[in-house]
Amino acid sequence: MALYSEKVMDHFRNPRNVGVIEDADGVGEVGNAKCGDIMKMYLKIRDDVVTDVKFETFGCGSAIASSSMATELIKGKPVSEAMKLTNKAVAEALDGLPAYKMHCSVLAEEAIQSALTDYYSRHPEKRE
Ligand code: FES
Q1: Domain tally for the chain?
Q2: Which alpha helices (DSSP H) does 14-101 contain, by range?
Q3: For residue 1, is pLDDT > 70?
Q4: Could you tell me the pTM of the whole model?
Q5: Of 65, 70, 56, which is closest to residue 112 (Cα–Cα)?
Q6: Is residue 1, in this structure, part of any structural domain at all?
């Protein structure tokens, strides 16, 4: 069996939503101290919905695929749903990651959480 699923390879080769949102409503940056990979997420939020999301990832193929899939999973979704996105859901949507690459999907979960935390710090009235 191939080490990486077709979906991982697809999102690695053709990552969706790469880039920067200059006037983002929330920005989050996280890193993994062990491997040194860094992920940055930008969110645009209107009426409690994630209307746009972009990412920059300096890291391994699994981290790039995880960021790409994570953006697809939260784009157009309510903020409350984006808050609940787990690394497991990202890995499942990619048809799995090798066990030693699961931490790459954790980075995607953490980057989104960090961007949402930034959004709430700018808009404390939105916090439930
Ligand atoms: Fe560190 Fe993939 S090896 S995020």
Answers
A1: 1
A2: 61-74, 79-83, 87-93
A3: no
A4: 0.95
A5: 70
A6: no
